[in-house]
Every structure is written in C-alpha cells, then in structure tokens.
Design a protein that fits this description.
OB fold (Dihydrolipoamide Acetyltransferase, E2P), six-stranded antiparallel sheet, single chain, 1 helix, 120 residues, mainly beta, elongated
Length: 120
C-alpha cells in the first residue's frame, strides 16, 4: 500500500540525535506539511537516519510537495504509539494543486463572411 499527501512544507523542526541501547548513534528530523484541509490540516512526518534527513535539505519551507510515507504503530504498557515515516519527498510543479480544474473553452472569432457560421 502506497500512502502519500500533497501540501505545503510549512516547517522543518530541528534534528534530534542520540545513542541506542546497543550503542549506535541515531538522528531524526520531523517536518510539517499543511494539506489545506478544513480540519487538522497539518501532518507531522519524521525522517529517521542521515540519508533520509538529506532529502529534506533540498526543499524549502513554503514549497509545494508530495510526501510518500509509511504508518506504523506499536504498543507500550497498554498504550499505542504511531509514527508517520516519510521515505520520499518530491517538489510539485508551481501552480499544481490537489483540485481538478477544467481548462477554459477555446474562443472562436466571428468571420466577416455571414455565410460562414462554422468556427473553423
């Protein structure tokens, strides 16, 4: 199953780092995408690992993006915690949006010949 969301990259949060129980260094960075929806328009994604964090560096706040992601849940002490892990971020072309817009109908100029009523 492939999940993705389109919206505006509204904020990049600071990089967090630490050391795992096994002694390995880790880094993660979160970022917000504003979908423009009426209710709960912002979605917070996380990037885990240096290579994933580098993807975010090529995007600026305010860019229109499409984010592909995975959802995961885990249980701890009877409570469930969820992650939204981004694995691809693409810049959308300027002017593209999630709305489907119909192109304008072509205009036809009237001919000087009154017998010619065809528009072509």
């Amino acid at each position: 199953m492939s999940l993705s969301i389109k919206g505006k990259l509204s904020r990049k949060l600071s990089v967090e780092s630490g050391t795992s129980k096994a002694g390995k260094e880790w880094k993660k960075q979160s970022f917000l995408v504003d979908t423009g929806e009426q209710y709960n328009p912002e979605v917070c994604f996380q990037l885990f690992g240096e290579d994933k964090i580098q993807m975010l560096n090529s995007h600026q706040e305010g860019d229109q993006v499409e984010v592909s992601f995975n959802l995961s849940s885990r249980e701890y002490n009877g409570r469930y915690f969820h992650n939204i892990d981004a694995w691809r971020i693409e810049t959308l072309a300027a002017g593209s949006s999630s709305e489907n817009k119909m192109p304008e109908a072509p205009s036809f100029e009237n001919s000087d010949n009154p017998d010619d009523d065809l528009p072509f």
